[in-house]
Design goal:
By secondary structure, the chain is an alpha+beta fold. The chain has 25 helices and 22 strands. Strands 11, 12, 13, 14, 15, 16 and 17 form a seven-stranded mixed sheet that branches. It has a five-stranded antiparallel sheet with strand order 2-1-5-4-3, with helices on one face. The termini are far apart.
Length: 801
Amino acid sequence: MASSSTLSMSTRPSLVLPFIHPPRILIHSLHRIISGNLPAGRQKMSESFLTDDLSLADENERLRLIVSALMDRAERITQGASRPAAQLAHVVALESQVRTRTRDLAETLDRLRVANARLSQAERDAVGARNALADALEAMVEGFAMFDAEDRLTMWNSRFCADLPDVRRRIGPGLTFRDYVRIVSESPGLNLADSSERREWVTQRLENHQRRDVNFMVQLVEDQWLQVSEQRMSSGGTAVTQTDVTAMVRNAREERTKLLDEQAQMVRATLDHIDQGVLIFDAKARLAGWNRRLRELFSPPVDLLAAGTPFTAILNNLMRRRQLGRSNIRATLTDWVNGPPHRPPLKVEIVQEEGNILDLFAQAMPDRGFVISFNDLTKERRAIAEMHRMNETLEARVRARTLELESARDEAERANASKSRFVASASHDLLQPLNAAKLFLSSLSGMEQPPAQTRLVERVNSAFGSVEQILGALLDISKFDIGAAHAKPESFALAPLLDRLREEFAPMATARGLGFRVHDTRAHVHSDPVYLKRVLQNLLSNGLRYTKSGRIILGVRHRGKYLRIEVWDTGPGIPEDKQTEIFREFTRLDPAQGDSGMGLGLAIVEQACALLGHPLTLRSIEGKGTVFSVTVPLVEPDQRREAVKDLHDSKRDALDDLLVLVVENDREVRSAMIGVLEGWGTSPIEAATLAEAEALIDELGVPPDVILADYQLDHGANGLDLVRDLRVRHGMLPAVLITADHNPDLAQKADEQGILLLRKPLSLRRLQRLLRHIPAQQTEPQSRAERGDHSYWFRQVNIAE
């Protein structure tokens, strides 16, 4: 068998030998690799790789199984050598598989070598980074430590807890944060007084640890200070840094001490310059500060005012020297000082034996200390007492002055009363004969006389006109002075008033050789027609008086809701510095330039415009002339009034056959009035009393068309009562009351009774105009039936006027 086998093998050596032994050697080599029979260096590298990479271990396990299977198959092939051909084929196939597996193993070994090299480099990099981190932590000035997400110590540097050596020795890896805090709290290097403070510190420290970011100060013994900062990291761990801030704290303390010293000096300077004496006590009622004024007020012993002196010692000294007045001040102050921290301030007034008065004010401070101040009120109280005495003296002087003023007021009232009596007396006693003279002159003017007598009558009439004008101005200004002037504004057409002014002033302007023009207007205004007419009369008179050549213009200008009535003249003009002075009473700029006058016209104009509320303006150019303007409110026209005006404009002008009853107690005045009325073509009848009037009416059998009655009659009778009594018997007769009394109450009473009022001196032109509106019996009997309405004729005449 042996020779046969040898022969067989020698016959085809190339087919057997190359394929039996090499696979075994390769398989055993692989087994050694897989099972770990390698040199120590390579085995260490493989173990490191297998330990760090589980996927390679799985691959080795698979290769081990393959090798075991190949060895089993090789043994089976050896045992079946009796079949050479089959063995040969199997060996060839096995060789191909072994080559493939060998190539795979070689590639795997290459990958293992590369991975192992990379792992070694990563380990070197990690060690380098860890060493760099350790170097960086050591380079930090602050102490540093890191706790992981489970609050266990993982890293720290040599400066961490370096100021607490006992703590430094006890820290190590895995130390919990809570144990770390406990160890620190037990350290004698921590500046805590007792165990309770240490427990409180631990509680507060653990509470701070729950925050994401916290900074706080820790005081160590020997005036050492650490600033501890904690910051939560993204991994959940905590980084703790400890910074030594001892130098910073000490510097800040020095700066604060310096600042406090400066502030103390400022406070001291301030205290020494205030007027109150001040004592400052700390929380234990010991003296901490005082000022110079306190020494001046109490002159205490030098050793008493020293820092730390108890409050009771100072109080006892002041009480013993009787510096605090009454005895119960001790109890009051003591109770307040021993009171609660938030006690209210104490305020007490002290009267010393020598009479000085001090105001004591005590107030608690936030640090439980308190301040007591003393304010000397002696001078103030003496000044107040002196002021009271002066007030009493002043009051006595005021009372005396009041008595003087009351006496002066009474004297003024008596003077006003005298003035009022003068006005009343002038109204009746002066105007009555003046009125009679005018009536007589009017009668003379209607008679045929030689030219010389006619000129004489005209001169006398002109003289009486001047007297009437002056007296009227005096009466008007007196009414303004005593407050007896009262306006009665109403709405009326302005044209009739301007027409009457044209009739009045056109002849005078013509006589002076001046042009005179009045602008026509359909405007209706709201004013007092009597006062407005008087204002315009005075302005026109002023223009005529001072204008030597040229013309006078009375015009109107519309200004929105107002109408401006203007009086233009071509006189000498008024200097600008005199334009205020001309409105004063009895003022004439150049008497030589004008005619006679008292200088009251413009004063009356100003006061009347003020009474009416009409703005008065003046524009003047020296050498060219002057413009006076009065602004009055515009109103819508009353159509009914216009219709009545048209009706009266169509009436006859003659007064023939008008029956006029004249009631006047003065025979001369009555005779003069009768003469005037007869000259106008009326049929006047005269009476002095109500009885005479009744007798005349009964004798005639018909009532008069109109009653002209004087207000003041004999035996206390008056014209108002007379008209009322006659109307009771004969119906609502038209009546005109003639009076020199300018009392507004009288005008109101006449208005209420439907009686027209004419004031003396009587304007005959106005009286004639009024009588033209009286319907005569013979011509208009139907109108007399309308007199049942007591205000019919009164309304008509007022509208016409």
